[in-house]
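Allow me, if you will, to draw on your knowledge of protein folds for a short while. The matter concerns a single protein, recorded as an amino acid sequence and a row of backbone structure tokens. Kindly check, if you would, that the fold set down in the tokens agrees with what the sequence suggests. You will find the record immediately after this paragraph.
***
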Amino acid sequence: MLVMGLLGRPDSPSQAEMGGLTLMALGVIPLAAARGLLRQRSWSRGPAIITQLIGLIPAWTLLRASGALIPLGVVLAAVVVTGLVLLVNPTTAQALGIRSRA
């Protein structure tokens, strides 16, 4: 979209450019969160949880589809739920240096 907005002739160049920049940002956020988790940075858990929650949307859509897409939805949902469980696990919080409020 960004390339089309800059080099092509879209109906709305500004909309194509903004859409391309938005998609690039949505691609960078999960990568930054993953890098932060690998380096055990406490800030990375929030973006990682948001990324997993966003992953539930296509999983739900695939589960409501028909035919061969349902198993793909099951796999995606299992991966997303596993990621969420691991991210909210107290051991993960401890490893990231996040203190509990208790």
Summary: The longest helix spans residues 13-38. DSSP finds five helices and no strands in the chain. The chain has a mean pLDDT of 88. The radius of gyration is 18 Å.
